User: What shape does this take?
Amino acid sequence: MNVWSPSDVSDIGSPSDMISWRQGWISAMLLALLTIIALVIFQIARAGSQSPSYVIKTTEQTHWVLPENMENIPRFDPVKRQWTVRHREIADLSKHMVDNWEGPDAFVRTYFVFTMDTQADSNGVREALADLTRRGICHAGIVDFPPRDLSPDHMAVMFQIVEVQDENGDSQRCRQRTPPPVR
Assistant: This one.
C-alpha cells in the first residue's frame, strides 16, 4: 500500500523554488521590455535631434537680374559639383562677387549671386552652400525663376550661410574670407 508522506513533496519542488522561478522569469521579461522601450526612445530622440542640412539667415536685401544678364550669373551643378558661367566651368568665384553700395544699412557689402536648375532639390542647394562655405563665401543669394505672368526680371534675396552639413553629415560653420572684388 502506498502512503503519501511529507518527504514526497521534495520531488515537485518547494513553494519558495516556484516563487523564485516565477520572479526570475518575470524579471527577465520586464528587463527585455524595458530594453525595447529604451531603444525606441533612443531612436526617437536621435531622429528628433538631427541637425538641419543647412542654416541660413535671410535678409530684406535683394538683388535684381535682368533676363538678358542671366547667362552671366554663375550656375551650380550639384551632380558634377561644379560652377559654370555660359556653360564653361569656373574655378575662381571671387571674380563673380557682387560689390554692393546700398549704404550703411546694407546687409553686407559683397555677396555672391548664383542660380541652379529649376529642378534642383534641397540636397542640391545644400551642395552649393557647402561649396561656398568651403570657399569662405558666406553671403549669397539664389536667383529665382519668376512665374510667366510676372515681370521677367529675376530676383535673389540675400542670406548669410551660418552652417552647412558636409558630405559626411558634419556641420561646418561658414567663415567669410573672400575679399571684395578688385575693380
About this structure: The longest strand covers residues 54-65.
